[in-house]
Amino acid sequence: MKARIRKAAKKMICCGIDNNKRDNLKKASEALSAELRFVEKEDYDMQVGLAVGFEGFRRTNTDNNEGECLIFSGFDSKEMDDALDVLDSNNADIPIKCVVTSRNQSWSIGDLITELKKEQEQLG
């Protein structure tokens, strides 16, 4: 019997996005056939895995709630290329983006954004 691996659903988790960008993100997610979820800054204590809908994750004790971020889950490398193109064509660019990994899924959203900002500054 062949093993079957079920592909994870494509999801875009929009963290701390202000209202004027939301319509463009909705259009982009529809073009990508991706589920779209908005997470408000008061929920930055959620672990990334919880925000994406994975089981076994929870809220943490972080108070980081600055910045915005777009988190992708369930996209392969080709789909990520397409997603970046679609975001650009829909004027829905968010400067900080990442993909859910086994390493970052247990981080709070606030801590993830803080780390991504540090990396972005180091790259200059």
Low-confidence runs (pLDDT<50, min 5 residues)?
none
> Strand order of the main beta sheet, please?
2-1-3-4
> What is the number of helical segments per DSSP (H or I, 4+ residues)?
4
The major sheet is characterized as:
4 strands, mixed
The helix-and-strand class reads alpha/beta
Q: What does the overall shape look like?
A: globular
Order of helices and strands: EHEHEHEH
Q: Approximately how much helix is present in the residues?
A: 25-40%
> Over the alpha carbons, how many angstroms does the gyration radius reach?
15 Å
Tell me the strand percentage band.
5-15%
For the secondary structure, the number of strands is: 4
What is the end-to-end distance? 51 Å
Explain what the structure shows:
The chain is an alpha/beta fold and 124 residues long. 27% of the residues are buried. Helix 1 links the parallel strand 1 and strand 2. The model has no long low-confidence stretch (mean pLDDT 92). The chain is globular and about 35 Å long. The protein has one domain (11-123). It is 37% helix and 15% strand. It is built from four helices and four strands.
